[in-house]
């Protein structure tokens, strides 16, 4: 029991110590590094901006979070549907997978202006950008999991006369869930990137829009504050998704840290 409590405490303390060390280095550079405040504001200035500009940061964070969540839901749904379709019908993989790879070869910064032009300055273009960013990890991980099902299970199912649909639902999909969970975790971590990039190119709200506006006004402390809010939001969202997946995949062995 004591060892378990110490292990949990260590998981909390280690990141806090790391963050405190980084903050100390940051504060030292800002104070004694002869760097102008408009280039590197100190942590105290950023905390002050977080408090005084909370009226802007709060609504902007909610906008970016909404875009991220919608992008996650649509991207995970579309990626899962395509991966399952390719697993059921092999020719679909040969025809569609090159296009999926091509979509990842084009930088998101190059696509953002076109998406804003096609879908407007509202939320739609940011959601589409988030979908494009997370589509490939979900499709790839779930597709790999479906193709790597234990051959013995497949042979046993065929011997017992199971249809392709039953094999998919009762064998291939459950076996692929750990791979799919890895893809969802990855998608959760990078989905805010798509939303923020879309906001940088063209938007009227959101953390990306706020950072872009602060940059043009040399409000670097507000930029850092918005970036901090985005980082905290992403970490909390990833942690929540990770907890949900860990409970859903209760039969999967947890990862063990090797010291």
Question: Can you walk me through this structure?
Answer:
- The relative contact order is 0.12.
- It is built from 10 helices and no strands.
- The model has no long low-confidence stretch (mean pLDDT 81).
- With 259 residues, it is mainly α.
- It has helices at 2-32, 43-52, 54-88, 90-105, 108-119, 123-147, 151-159, 164-201, 207-216, 220-248.
List keywords for this structure.
mainly alpha, 259 residues
Summarize the entry for a quick read.
This protein has 259 residues and is an all-alpha fold. The protein has helices spanning 2-32, 43-52, 54-88, 90-105, 108-119, 123-147, 151-159, 164-201, 207-216, 220-248. The two termini are 20 Å apart.
Rounded to an integer in angstroms, the radius of gyration calculated over CA atoms is 22 Å
Number of strands: 0
The proportion of residues forming helix, as a percent range, comes to over 70%
- How much beta, percentage-wise? under 5%
**Strand/helix succession:** HHHHHHHHHH
Alpha plus pi helix count: 10
Helix/strand class? mainly alpha
Gap from first CA to last CA = 20 Å
Question: What oligomerization state is this entry in?
Answer: single chain
**Largest sheet geometry:** none
Q: Indicate the mean pLDDT.
A: 81
Judging from the principal axes of the Cα atoms, what is the shape? elongated
Low-confidence stretches are: none
């Amino acid at each position: 029991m004591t060892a378990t409590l110490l292990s949990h405490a260590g998981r909390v303390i280690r990141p806090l110590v790391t963050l405190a060390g980084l903050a100390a280095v940051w504060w030292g550079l800002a104070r004694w590094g002869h760097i102008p405040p408009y280039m590197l504001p100190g942590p105290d200035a950023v905390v002050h901006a977080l408090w005084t500009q909370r009226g802007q940061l709060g609504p902007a964070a909610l906008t970016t979070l909404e875009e991220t969540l919608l992008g996650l839901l649509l991207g995970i749904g579309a990626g899962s549907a395509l991966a399952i379709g390719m697993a059921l019908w092999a020719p679909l993989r040969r025809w569609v997978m090159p296009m999926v790879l091509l979509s990842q070869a084009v930088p998101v910064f190059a696509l953002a202006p076109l998406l804003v032009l096609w879908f407007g300055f509202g939320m739609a273009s940011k959601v589409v950008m988030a979908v494009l960013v997370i589509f490939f990890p979900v499709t790839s991980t779930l597709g790999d999991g479906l193709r790597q099902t234990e051959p013995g299970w497949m042979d046993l199912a065929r011997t017992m006369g199971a249809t392709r649909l039953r094999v998919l639902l009762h064998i291939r999909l459950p076996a692929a869930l750990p791979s799919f969970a890895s893809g969802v975790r990855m998608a959760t971590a990078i989905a805010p990137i798509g939303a923020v990039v879309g906001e940088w190119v063209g938007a009227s709200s959101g953390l990306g829009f706020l950072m872009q506006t602060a940059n043009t006004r040399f409000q670097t402390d507000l930029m850092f504050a918005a970036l901090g809010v985005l980082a905290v939001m992403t970490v909390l969202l990833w942690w929540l998704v990770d907890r949900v997946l860990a409970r859903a995949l209760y039969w999967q062995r947890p990862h063990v840290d090797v010291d």
